[in-house]
Amino acid sequence: MRVLLIVVLAAATTACASSGAVPKPFPRPDTSGGSAASATAGGGAGARSARGNRTGGYEISGTALALRGTPYRDGGNDPSGFDCSGFVWYVFAQHGVPLPRTVGAQSQTGERVPAGALKPGDLVFFSTVAPGASHVGIVIGGDSFVHAPSNAGVVRVERMSASYWAARFVGARRVL
């Protein structure tokens, strides 16, 4: 019976990276359109959107938080459902900041950021299905990030220091 439960649980979860691999189960949880513009790497002041507005980490975080509760959808990149990289891609696009669509490409964008220097709007990467980055979220401040976890969940906030995430953290990038 226990083996059957494990098989059912494994089948019910899918990988964020849309690879078809099955991640280890995620822990349970305790808009306007814009066009593309060049993002500036690193700077704390933020990037200029295509509309000429200043975009920073707090604006990005606010947009991400407004999408809490949106269901997970493998390959999803709009408010009807998101996978992790589609969620990040969509949030930044709302501010005119272009990002690649996949976790792997997002993990190579912008500048590396040490874990102790994270700011709202930074991207955080985790290894959930294989070595290397296979999951991404957006830092909202302090120890928290927002993400689209798996098909068993919805867009939600988690703590990076939670044992599940801390053990799987592989790096962070700053694109604003």
How is this structure best described in words?
With 176 residues, this protein is an alpha+beta fold. The strands form 3 sheets. A 6-stranded antiparallel β-sheet has the order 5-10-6-7-8-9. β6 (123-126) and β7 form a beta hairpin. It is built from 5 helices and 10 strands; from the N terminus they run αββαββααβββββαβ. It has a single domain, classed as endopeptidase fold (from Nostoc punctiforme) (Alpha-Beta Complex). The termini are far apart.
Summary of the model, kept short:
With 176 residues, this protein is α+β, with helices and mostly antiparallel strands. It has one domain: endopeptidase fold (from Nostoc punctiforme), CATH 3.90.1720.10. It is built from five helices and ten strands; from the N terminus they run αββαββααβββββαβ.
Layout of helices and strands, plus pairs?
Blueprint: H1 2-12, E1 47-48, E2 54-55, H2 57-66, E3 77-78, E4 81-82, H3 84-93, H4 103-106, E5 111-112, E6 123-126, E7 135-141, E8 144-147, E9 156-159, H5 163-168, E10 169-174
Q: Considering the protein shown, what is the CATH homologous superfamily?
A: endopeptidase domain like (from Nostoc punctiforme)
- Which percent range fits the helix content? 10-25%
Biggest sheet character: 6 strands, antiparallel
Structural class computed from helices and strand pairing:
alpha+beta
Shape descriptor: globular
Q: Identify the strand order in the major beta sheet.
A: 5-10-6-7-8-9
CATH topology-level fold name: endopeptidase fold (from Nostoc punctiforme)
How large is the radius of gyration? 16 Å
Quickly count the domains. Answer: 1
Low-confidence stretches: 1-15, 18-45, 48-52
Please work out how many helical segments DSSP would assign: 5
Helix/strand order, N-terminal first? HEEHEEHHEEEEEHE
Gap from first CA to last CA? 49 Å
Number of strands: 10
Q: What is the CATH class designation?
A: Alpha Beta
Quote the beta fraction: 15-25%
